């Protein structure tokens, strides 16, 4: 089973959509909330090169944000990464 990490904020609708897709697929993930945590946000930015949430990593590979996750799933690229 893949290791999935997702950087989130509690009020982010895109975070909720991304988590819902992962939940629907029965994927367990480590949620890393960055609300009010500047140091954790910096770690996310260094890892992803992006400042927005969510940022999603599968087996330490950056797959992007919510739209990227849905696009990956749409072209049947998500399932192979989750194996």
Folded structure, characterized:
The protein is of the alpha+beta class. It has a single domain, classed as Glutaredoxin. The protein has 4 helices and 4 strands; from the N terminus they run E-H-E-H-E-E-H-H. It has helices spanning 13-24, 38-48, 66-74, 78-82, and strands at residues 4-8, 30-33, 55-58, 61-64.
Helix fraction, binned, reads 40-55%
CATH 2nd-level architecture = 3-Layer(aba) Sandwich
Overall structural domain count: 1
The H-level CATH homologous superfamily, spelled out, is: Glutaredoxin
What distance lies between the first and last C-alpha atoms, to the nearest angstrom? 5 Å
The total beta strand count reads 4
Question: Mind sketching the topology for me?
Answer:
Elements: E1 4-8, H1 13-24, E2 30-33, H2 38-48, E3 55-58, E4 61-64, H3 66-74, H4 78-82
Parallel strand pairs: 1-2
Antiparallel strand pairs: 1-3, 3-4
Helix pairs in contact: 1-3
Domain Glutaredoxin: 4-63
Pfam families: Glutaredoxin
Protein name: Glutaredoxin
